[in-house]
Structures are given as structure tokens and as C-alpha cells.
Specification:
By secondary structure, this protein is mainly beta. It is 0% helix and 45% strand.
Length: 65
């Protein structure tokens, strides 16, 4: 698929900084708790945002270590 058709899940820390972008495949994405540089992130609340042609959705997640 072209980049316009690819859906991404973006993960933000509580301060609103983007920490990781994941490609959504088959309607799902899996996050391993690491940032874009591969460093393990601390326990806490993060926000996952997905934007598609049908709209956008943000969900709060809790990362446990």
C-alpha cells in the first residue's frame, strides 16, 4: 500500500511528546513499551492516537514495568 493508505498508531507521553510510531497491520498494532530509539520507557500513562480517513481516536493506556 502507498503511504497515504498506511495507518499509523502514534504513542505520546503525558507531556504530549511523540515517543513512538507504529504501523497498524490488519487492524492491530503491538507496542513493546519502547521509544523510537529502542529504550524501555518508564511505567505510567501514555496516549495512543490513530488517524484514518474515517476519523481519529485517542486512547489512554497504562504501561506497567
Amino acid at each position: 500500500p502507498s503511504s497515504e493508505q498506511t495507518t499509523h498508531l502514534r504513542i505520546y507521553d503525558p507531556a504530549g511528546r511523540l515517543v513512538r510510531t507504529l504501523e497498524v497491520v490488519g487492524g492491530a498494532a503491538e507496542w513493546d513499551g519502547r521509544d523510537a530509539a529502542g529504550r524501555r520507557l518508564g511505567a505510567g500513562i501514555y496516549f495512543c492516537r490513530v488517524v484514518t480517513g474515517a476519523g481519529a481516536r485517542t486512547t489512554k493506556v497504562v504501561l506497567l514495568n
